[in-house]
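User: Can you predict the 3D structure for this chain?
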Amino acid sequence: MLSIFRQYTFDDSFEQVFVSNKFLKEYQIALTFATDYDDDDHPTNGIFRPTWDLQKVTPEAIELFKEKGRSMDVDVKVFISIGNRGTHQPFKPLDNNTWIANATQSLTNLIQCKEPNLRVDGIDVLYEQIDASPGDFIQCVGQLIKNLKENGVITEASISPTFNLNKDFYSRLYSSVSFLVDFVDYQFQKEVDFVMNPGVLLQRYNELTKVYPRRKLLAGYSAENEDWTTLSPIVFFLGGMDILKKRKAPGISIHYHNFYAQSSPQQ
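Assistant: Here is the predicted structure, written as structure tokens:
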């Protein structure tokens, strides 16, 4: 049985999902993204704001989905994903200490304020582009997670590595604050070399377990067509089944939105 399923989304497409304890124990909604850039793409040095669809992702929608989960004995958790897709709005602190202070305060305000009051459980760190040194990334993000956890703002935290950034940034971040990181959601759709068969995917997962504990390591993928360049859906599906069965991974994640809904914000 799949223990954890995570959906990355900027809209309310989670409402379309059928949840049942026959299939999983926990459903995670990861909202994309909270960003520290303004509407003109100028960096705000750690002052985060939501960019998901606030008209669709409402406290009522979240609570109804949580209630549906409880009725099926499935735990529903909400994460705010800070980061970016591609090269747009990269991690780029202007000053580390100020970034940490701003990020801690702005995310605390976003999570604890009455509006949107989404009953957030944790944050996820998913930067696909980092315009800073590994040391800056580790200091800023590690201290942010530490502050939010110690202040009781969140109970869980996850990091979501990609191939290009894993060795120098994410694995070093994990080593620095491993006791504060509950999940590592590796984004397989960002592999550089073409993944031709499910066995290669399983081999790659095995390599990752040398760095990250298997009990924390999710296998991530994307339902967005532009992310299928090096890894097709069928290869991930078959490889993912092997990862869940043979390696006993705790779960998987998918980037999925309601593409047919009108006026969805662009990421």
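Confidence is low (pLDDT under 50) at residues 262-267. The domain at 4-255 is CATH 3.20.20.80 (TIM Barrel).
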